[in-house]
C-alpha cells in the first residue's frame, strides 16, 4: 500500500470531491488472509466493490456497483456473482424520482416510498453494510426504512485506537439493529468508511493489518456480551429454592406415554417429585400453572458451533441442551460458564474437542496440526481438560485414524467426525469411529471414488447428483447399516441442512424456515429465499431425489436400531424443529422422535448431570407446549414456557426481543 493511500484511508484527511480512491481489505480466516474486499470510489462518487474469499473450496464472489445520491442513499445498485455455496447472484435496484424498483434471483418489486429509504441488497458486499451505517448516522433519529421491507437503527458503542502498520487509527464500533435477530456490528473509521468486521473466526481488516482483526473481535465480543447480559436480566425469571409447575400433562419420553395432569415439584433446579395434586402438595409454594398443557424434557441439539448470541434462540425454541462439535477452547468454556450461571440466556452445553490437519481445506476452528504426534498430544490435552469426545475433520490422513482412535479410547473418550478424505465410512468405523457426523458421509461410502476429494464441495455435489440413484435396499447398504448397529456407531445426520441444500432453489422459501417465515424480521424473510447450490431445471429433480433418499436412509437406520442424534449445524432452534419434522416424515413415530431429541440425546451427551427425563432426581430442564407433539410433531414450535434448572423463560418475550412474532402467548 502506498504512503499516499495509507494516509488517505487511515490518517483521515479531508477528501476532496472528484478524487478517485481505493479501499483495500483482507478477508481473514483464523487470522490468515483467505480473500479480499476492494472498493473503488470514482470521481463521480460511484462505488465498485469486488469481494471474494475461499473457505474449504467454498466462498462467495461478488461484484457490486452502487450510485449514491447527495444524502448517501443508493439510487442504483447492481450485484452479480455467486453465493457462498455457488448459487447465482443477479440483482438490480434503481430509484428514479419517487419510484423504486428492483429485481433479483430472490424477488422483484416496485414501490413509491415516502421519505428516505435504503435498499438492502440480498447479496451485497461488506461495503454496502458500511454505506448503510453511514446513512443511518446521518438519518433523523438514526433510523431508516429499508427496501424491500423493515427498518434499521444504529447505535455507536465505543471508540478505540488501533495500530495499523505503526500508525494510530481511531475507529468506532457500531451496532445496527433490524437486519437480523441480534445486532450486526461494524467498525467505521473517522471518515465513517469501513474499518473492520468480525464474525468469530472470520472477518475483514485493512489490507496487511491482520493484527487488527483479533483486537477488534475481542472488543466486539465484549460489547455483544454486554448486550446479551442486558437481555438475560430482562428475560429471566429466577425461581425460589422450591416451587411447583401445576397441572402439567407430562410426557414419559422413554415410554412414549402422556400422563394425566400432575404437579412437578422443583428444588434447587432439580425435580423433587412428580404426581397428582393429592400426592405432590404445593400449598404455600411459588407456582406456575401449566393449565393442562403438555410438558416434556427440554430438547437437545447435538450439533452446534456455539456462539453467545445463539442462546436466546435456543431457549425460545425449547432447546435446553446442546453439544458443541467444534470451537475454540476458551470460547466454549466461557459460554458453558455463562450459560450455566445465567449470566447469559442459554442451554446446558457439552463440549467436543476438534482436530484437523493443516491443508488448504482446514476447518476454520481449533488449532490444526501438522503431524500425527501433534494430533496425539492434542488428544492428551483435551483429555486433561475433561472433554468426553473428540471430532476429527476431513483433512486428517486416513492412516492416522487408527492411532487416533486408540489414543482417544485409551482416555475413555469417544471419536466422531467427518470421514477423512479418500477414506470410506466403513473403513472409519472398522478403525474406531464411535459416531459419524452428517448423513452425506454415509452416502459417500457408496458414491465416492478414488478421485473424490471430500474436503471440497464434492462431498455435497456428489451426493446431490447421485444420491437419488443409490439402492437403499441393496445388500451393500444393508450390510453397512448392520455394521453400524453391530459397532453401536451413533449417526448425527443433520438431514435438515442437506434437505434444504438439495431442494432450495433461489427465489423459493427455505424448507427450514418455510413454516415460520411470516414470524421473522423482514430482512430475515428475504434472506430465507437465498438458495445454496446452483439448482436449475436440469438438475432440480435429481437433487430432490437425493433429498428423498436421505430420508429413506434415516428410516432404515432407525429401523435397524442405529442410534440417531438430532443436530442442526445451521440456524439454531428453527432448524432443530425441522430436523425432527423430517424424522417424522421419514416414518419414525412422533414418540420416538421426541425420545431421540430428549433422553437419548442427553444420555449420549453425558454431561455428568441427570437430565433428559421428567422424574425425581433429574435436572428441571422442561418445555411446556401448547398442543400434543405425540399427535403433531410441529407442536414443539409452540412453546409457552421453558425451564432451565432454577430459571424460567417465556418464549414469547424472547422472540419479541429478537424481532420475531411469537407463535403462541406464554403462560402468564
UniProtKB/TrEMBL annotation:
It comes from Arenimonas soli. It comes from the Bacteria. It holds the Pfam family Amidohydro_1. This is Amidohydrolase-related domain-containing protein. Residues 1-17 form the signal peptide. Residues 294-638 form the Amidohydrolase-related domain. PANTHER family: ALPHA-D-RIBOSE 1-METHYLPHOSPHONATE 5-TRIPHOSPHATE DIPHOSPHATASE. Keywords: Signal. InterPro entries: Amidohydro-rel, Metal-dep_hydrolase_composite, Metal_Hydrolase, Metallo-dep_Hydrolase.
Amino acid at each position: 500500500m502506498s504512503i499516499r493511500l495509507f494516509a488517505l484511508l487511515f490518517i483521515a484527511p479531508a477528501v476532496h470531491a472528484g478524487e478517485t480512491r481505493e479501499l483495500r481489505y483482507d478477508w481473514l480466516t483464523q487470522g490468515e488472509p483467505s480473500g479480499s474486499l476492494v472498493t473503488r470510489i470514482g470521481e463521480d462518487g460511484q462505488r465498485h466493490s469486488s469481494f471474494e474469499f475461499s473457505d474449504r473450496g467454498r466462498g462467495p464472489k461478488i461484484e457490486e456497483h452502487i450510485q449514491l445520491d447527495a444524502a448517501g442513499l443508493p439510487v442504483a445498485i447492481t450485484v452479480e456473482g455467486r453465493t457462498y455455496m455457488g448459487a447465482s447472484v443477479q440483482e438490480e435496484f434503481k430509484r428514479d424520482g419517487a419510484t423504486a424498483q428492483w429485481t433479483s434471483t430472490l424477488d422483484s418489486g416496485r414501490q413509491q416510498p415516502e421519505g428516505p429509504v435504503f435498499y438492502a441488497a440480498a447479496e451485497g458486499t461488506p461495503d454496502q453494510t458500511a454505506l448503510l451505517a453511514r446513512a443511518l448516522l446521518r438519518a433523523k433519529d438514526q433510523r431508516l426504512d429499508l427496501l424491500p421491507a423493515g427498518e434499521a437503527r444504529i447505535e455507536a458503542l465505543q471508540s478505540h485506537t488501533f495500530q495499523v502498520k505503526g500508525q494510530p487509527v481511531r475507529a468506532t464500533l457500531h451496532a445496527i439493529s433490524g437486519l437480523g435477530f441480534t445486532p450486526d456490528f461494524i467498525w467505521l473509521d473517522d471518515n465513517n468508511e469501513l474499518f473492520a468486521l468480525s464474525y468469530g473466526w472470520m472477518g475483514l481488516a485493512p489490507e496487511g493489518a491482520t493484527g487488527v482483526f483479533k483486537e477488534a473481535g475481542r472488543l466486539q465480543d465484549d460489547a455483544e456480551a454486554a448486550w446479551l447480559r442486558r437481555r438475560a436480566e430482562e428475560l429471566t425469571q429466577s425461581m425460589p429454592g422450591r416451587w411447583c409447575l401445576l397441572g402439567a400433562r407430562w410426557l414419559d419420553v422413554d415410554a412414549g406415554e402422556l400422563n394425566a395432569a400432575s404437579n412437578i415439584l422443583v428444588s434447587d433446579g432439580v425435580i423433587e417429585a412428580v404426581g397428582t395434586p393429592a400426592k405432590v402438595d404445593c400449598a404455600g409454594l411459588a407456582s406456575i400453572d401449566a393449565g393442562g398443557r403438555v410438558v416434556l424434557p427440554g430438547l437437545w441439539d447435538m450439533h452446534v458451533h456455539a456462539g453467545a448470541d445463539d442462546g436466546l434462540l435456543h431457549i425460545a425454541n425449547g432447546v435446553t441442551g446442546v453439544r458443541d462439535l467444534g470451537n475454540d477452547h476458551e470460547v466454549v468454556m466461557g459460554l458453558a460458564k455463562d450459560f450455566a450461571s445465567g449470566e447469559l440466556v442459554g442451554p446446558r452445553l457439552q463440549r467436543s474437542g476438534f482436530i484437523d490437519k493443516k491443508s488448504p481445506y482446514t476447518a476454520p476452528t481449533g488449532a490444526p496440526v501438522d503431524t500425527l504426534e501433534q494430533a496425539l498430544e492434542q488428544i492428551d490435552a483435551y483429555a486433561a481438560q475433561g472433554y468426553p469426545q473428540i471430532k476429527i475433520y476431513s483433512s486428517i490422513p486416513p492412516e492416522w485414524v487408527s492411532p487416533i482412535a486408540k489414543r482417544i479410547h485409551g482416555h475413555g473418550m469417544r471419536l466422531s467426525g467427518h470421514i477423512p478424505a479418500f477414506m470410506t465410512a466403513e473403513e472409519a468405523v472398522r478403525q474406531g469411529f464411535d459416531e459419524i457426523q452428517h448423513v452425506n458421509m454415509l452416502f459417500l461410502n457408496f458414491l465416492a471414488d478414488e478421485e473424490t476429494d471430500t474436503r471440497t464441495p464434492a462431498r455435497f455435489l456428489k451426493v446431490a447428483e447421485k444420491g437419488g440413484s443409490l439402492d437403499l435396499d441393496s445388500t451393500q447398504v444393508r450390510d453397512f447399516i448392520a455394521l453400524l448397529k453391530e459397532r453401536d456407531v451413533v449417526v448425527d445426520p443433520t438431514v435438515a441442512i442437506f434437505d434444504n441444500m438439495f431442494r432450495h432453489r433461489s427465489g423459493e422459501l427455505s424448507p427450514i424456515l418455510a413454516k415460520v417465515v411470516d414470524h421473522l424480521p423482514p430482512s430475515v424473510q428475504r434472506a430465507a429465499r437465498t438458495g445454496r447450490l446452483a439448482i436449475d431445471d436440469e438438475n432440480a429433480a435429481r437433487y430432490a431425489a437425493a433429498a428423498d433418499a436421505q430420508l429413506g436412509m434415516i428410516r432404515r437406520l432407525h429401523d435397524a436400531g442405529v442410534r440417531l442424534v438430532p443436530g442442526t449445524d445451521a440456524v439454531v432452534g428453527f432448524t432443530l424443529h425441522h430436523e425432527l419434522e423430517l424424522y417424522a416424515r421419514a416414518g419414525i413415530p412422533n414418540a420416538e422422535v421426541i425420545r431421540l431429541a430428549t433422553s437419548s440425546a442427553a444420555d449420549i451427551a453425558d454431561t455428568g448431570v441427570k437430565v433428559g427425563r421428567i422424574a425425581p432426581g433429574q435436572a428441571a430442564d422442561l418445555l411446556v407446549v401448547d398442543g400434543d407433539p405425540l399427535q403433531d410433531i410441529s407442536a414443539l414450535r409452540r412453546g409457552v414456557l421453558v425451564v432451565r434448572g432454577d430459571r424460567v423463560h417465556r418464549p414469547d418475550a424472547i422472540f419479541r426481543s429478537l424481532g420475531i412474532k411469537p407463535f403462541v402467548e406464554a403462560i402468564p
